[in-house]
Amino acid sequence: MEWQLQKRWPLEPLFSFQISGGLGDTVKHGETGLKADPNNPKDIAEKLLMLIEDENLRKRLGENAKKEAERRWRCEIIAKKLLDLYLKVLNAE
Questions:
Q1: Which runs of consecutive H residues, i.e. helices, occur in the chain?
Q2: How far is it, in rounded angstroms, from Cα 46 to Cα 37?
Q3: Radius of gyration of the chain (CA)
Q4: What is the pLDDT of residues 57-92, one digit of tens each?
Q5: Order of strands, edge to edge, in the sheet holding 14-17?
Q6: Of 25, 26, 47, 92, which sees the most CB atoms within 10 A?
Q7: Which of 11-25, 26-40, 49-63 has the lowest mean pLDDT?
Q8: With 0-12 CB in 10 A as exposed, 13-18 as middle and 19+ as buried, what is 47?
Q9: Where are the domains of the chain?
Q10: Which helix (H) or strand (E) holds 28?
């Protein structure tokens, strides 16, 4: 299970570990959030300090994360994907 720090995602930048699956594949390091090596406490601390100390970085990452979330997970997109899946299952019978 992926561990993540988030306050009001997607209004705040994300912090995730560099692992496959889940949020780890969603966060684009340096663009929509920061990724850290889960086995490297120094890396984790450095990334957290970057977010704590750099307000401009937090704002930029947060704005980018919000735009990405709106682009990928709008209700219309999710509904269409779900409908397509249902139709695919129905047609497979």
A1: 23-26, 41-53, 55-73, 75-92
A2: 11
A3: 16
A4: 999 998 898 888 888 777 888 888 899 999 999 998
A5: 4-5, 14-17, 33-36
A6: 47
A7: 11-25
A8: buried
A9: 4-92
A10: none
